[in-house]
């Protein structure tokens, strides 16, 4: 894996970006120069250093005098937590339902696939907004939205993979010696079809990051006292003509993180899919 990563410049770039964001989230309280919620109205709307501002605030301050760099650092925590937690829960739900549909077929497959069709008939943004509006603003609800709205691709993917392997000779051999269905699925089928799921998970993380930023932008994300990149972007839109950095900086953070996830996902697809090496 390390050799493959070193040979892929884009993959290495993606991994480095995600490693940087991950470390920034873990070490936020030690590397953040200020309290992200501390207001200083005497120093509000300061420009960043590269735009002629003071070195006291490297990336400037917002309309309440809060340090933008500190808010970007702490905002990475929400991004990483929601992305990883949402991806894990969505994957668990999708893989479980997809495995049941693909292995058992018949009415089980029909029932699960109709649920998939019903969910796909709802626009993703509309579904997320509905759940957020009903359940309210909280980190737990954002993760729940990510899981509810993100399990379908995993279910469809794992179902298709299992349909192609469930009748293979090694599965028949396990059945012939008394292997139970649950054990066959868990220990003999899923390990052989999990590679595309891992790739889907990396690409799904990018969608969850954008979802969290979108909900925060609309005021339906986590509570207002918690800094997030999406809310920073929303707050900065009113100052685009006078202080564009308020919106540009969180937008760049979101873009780079999504880019890093996608580049890492592309490399993992190339590494884990042997068909691409033929």
Overview of the molecule:
The protein is mostly helical and 278 residues long. It has one domain (2-277): Orthogonal Bundle (MetI-like fold), CATH 1.10.3720. Helix content is 72%, strand content 0%. The chain is built from twelve helices and no strands. The protein has helices spanning 2-7, 9-26, 28-31, 68-104, 106-120, 124-135, 139-165, 169-176, 181-193, 195-217, 229-236, 245-272. It starts with a helix and ends in a 6-residue tail after the last helix.
Instruction: Tell the overall outline.
Output: elongated
What is the level-2 CATH architecture name?
Answer: Orthogonal Bundle
Overall structural domain count: 1
- What do the pLDDT scores average to? 83
Q: Helix and strand string, N-terminal first?
A: HHHHHHHHHHHH
What fraction of residues sit in β-strands? under 5%
Tell me the name of the CATH homologous superfamily.
Answer: MetI-like
Which fold does the CATH topology refer to?
Answer: MetI-like fold
Structural class of the helices, strands and pairings? mainly alpha
């Amino acid at each position: 894996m390390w050799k493959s990563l070193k040979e892929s410049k884009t993959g290495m770039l993606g991994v480095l970006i995600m490693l940087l964001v991950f470390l920034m989230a873990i070490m936020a309280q030690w590397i953040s120069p200020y309290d992200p919620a501390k207001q200083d109205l005497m120093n509000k709307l300061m420009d960043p250093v590269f735009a002629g501002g003071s070195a006291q605030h490297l990336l400037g301050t917002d309309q309440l005098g809060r340090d933008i760099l500190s808010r970007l650092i702490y905002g990475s925590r929400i991004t990483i937590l929601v992305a990883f937690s949402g991806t894990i829960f969505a994957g668990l739900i999708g893989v479980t339902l997809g495995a049941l549909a693909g292995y058992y077929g018949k009415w089980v497959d029909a029932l699960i696939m109709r649920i998939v069709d019903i969910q796909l008939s709802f626009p993703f943004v509309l579904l997320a907004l509905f759940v957020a509006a009903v359940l309210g603003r909280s980190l737990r609800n954002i993760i729940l939205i990510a899981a509810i709205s993100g399990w379908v691709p995993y279910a469809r993917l794992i179902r298709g993979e299992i349909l192609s392997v469930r009748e293979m000779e090694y599965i028949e051999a396990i059945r012939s010696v008394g292997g139970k269905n649950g054990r066959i699925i868990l220990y003999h089928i899923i390990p052989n079809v999990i590679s595309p799921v891992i790739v889907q998970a990396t690409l799904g993380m990018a969608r969850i990051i954008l979802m969290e930023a979108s909900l925060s932008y609309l005021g339906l994300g986590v509570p207002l006292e918690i800094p997030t990149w999406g809310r920073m972007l929303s707050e900065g839109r009113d100052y685009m003509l006078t202080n564009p950095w308020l919106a540009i900086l969180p937008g760049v953070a979101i873009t780079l993180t999504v880019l890093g996830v996608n580049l890492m996902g592309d490399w993992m697809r190339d590494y884990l899919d042997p068909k691409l090496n033929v």
